[in-house]
Amino acid sequence: MVPPRPGWTPLRLCRPRRLAPHTTTPAPARLISSTTSASQAADGFPTSSSSSPSSSGNPQPPNKPQPPKPKKPLTPEQQSFLSSALRVNQAGELAATLIYRAQTPVVVGREPHLRPLMQHMYDQEVGHFRTFNELIAKHRVRPTALYPLWSVLATGLGWTTGVLGREAAMACTEAVETEIGGHYNAQIRRLLEMVGEWEAEGYDVGDEFRELISTLRRIRDEELEHLDHAVEHDAKKAEPHWLLTGVIRAGCRGAIWVSERV
Amino acid sequence: MSSSALACFAGATTARRILLRPRWPTILPGTPSVAAPCRSSSACATRSIIITSQQCDLLPRPRQRQCEQQAIFFTPNRSYHSHDHPPPPGPFTHAEQNLLSAAYVHVPSHGFSQEALALGARDTGLLDISPSILPDGVFSLIRWHLYTQRTLLAAKAKDAVDQTAAVTVGDKVEALAWLRLRGNEAVVGRWQEALAIMAQPSYVPASLKELASLADEILYLAGDVSVDPSWYTKRASLSAIYAAAELFQTTDQSPKFRETRAFLRRRLDEAAQAGGALRSVGEWVGFNASAAVNVLRSKGVRI
Question: Pro residues bias located where (chain A) (predicted)?
Answer without folding.
Answer: 59-68
